Amino acid sequence: MSGVPPLASSGVFSVGDSVLINAPREKVWKILLDFPSYEEWNPYTRTCTFVSESGSAIDDQTLGVGKLFVSRANLPPAGLTPPRQSGSSRITTLDHDNFRVAWVTPGLLAWFLFVERWTMLTVVDGKTKWETFEVFSGILAYIVYWVHYKNLLLAFRAMAEALKSRRSCTIISESGSIVEDQTLAEGKLFVTCVNLPPEMTPPRYKGTTLDHDNFRVAWETPGFMSWFVNVER
Questions:
Q1: With 50 as the cut, is the pLDDT of residue 200 above it?
Q2: Could you tell me which Pfam families the record lists for this protein (predicted)?
Q3: Domain ranges of the chain
Q4: CA atoms in the 13 A half-sphere facing the CB of 100
Q5: Is residue 37 exposed (0-12), middle (13-18) or buried (19+ Cβ within 10 Å)?
Q6: CATH architecture label of 8-166
Q7: DSSP structure string for the chain
Q8: What pLDDT score was predicted for residue 218?
């Protein structure tokens, strides 16, 4: 493969989505590449398992160019329920420097249905933009379009929202900008990721206790806001 995303017009049809996430690219990238954790949050692709050419699971479940994996998914998305569909893909691009990953349909099936999926992370206005799209080619692509086009749109939207929530909490400075050190510590300020309307500001908290010996952590509402509503967890 060329390592260059295909044009949408190069296939029978394409589908994709994007979302802005208030978290560092490195953090979102780590979540995307952690295939074993997909079953914890991804309502579309429920599991991804790297396999040998014979189809048996392999020990090394980290991404790598040329590696084959089996994904199990739900079309349409159905929350965190067991997957209903499955398919195989091969990693063709894994660009850590530019935060891009891609995979394609492997083997003989590609003659009838060739699917190329790209996922990219960029920075927009200080936030991470997650963008993914699939280009479908081949005679069977017409059937997929007729049966699953709307389901694919729903699936990518569900994954976008779930990924936005999965990034959990982001450590920020007092001015509200994201800091490089995302490790927890007492006194650090963080913003939580919860499902709120876009016009609402996510709540902020400050760490008050981080007790590794006794496995305890606590935080509370910071600043003047605590005069009106104080939340301690």
A1: no
A2: Polyketide_cyc2
A3: 8-166, 169-227
A4: 12
A5: middle
A6: 2-Layer Sandwich (3.30)
A7: --SSPPPGGGSSEEEEEEEEESS-HHHHHHHHH-GGGHHHH-SSEEEEEEE-TTS-B-S--S--TT-EEEEEE-SS-BTBSPP-EEEEEEEEEEETTTTEEEEE--SGGGGT-EEEEEEEEEEETTEEEEEEEEEEESTTHHHHHHHHHHHHHHHHHHHHHHHHHHT-EEEE-TTSPBPS-----TT-EEEE-----TTSPPPEEEEEEEETTTTEEEEE--GGGGGT---B-
A8: 81
pLDDT at 216 over 90: no
Spatial contact of 107 and 91, defined as CB atoms under 8 Å apart: no
| Length of the chain as a residue count | 233
Residues 100/116, Cβ–Cβ less than 8 Å? no
Residue 169 has a pLDDT of: 65
Chain position carrying tokens 């009838």: 112
C-alpha to C-alpha distance for 35 and 199, rounded to whole angstroms: 32
Q: What tens digit of pLDDT does each residue of 36-95 get? A: 999 999 999 999 999 999 999 999 999 999 999 999 999 999 888 889 999 999 999 999
Q: Confidence class of residue 195 from pLDDT cuts 50, 70 and 90?
A: very low
Contact yes or no for 44/77 (Cβ under 8 A): yes
The residue written with tokens 């295909």 in the block is 6
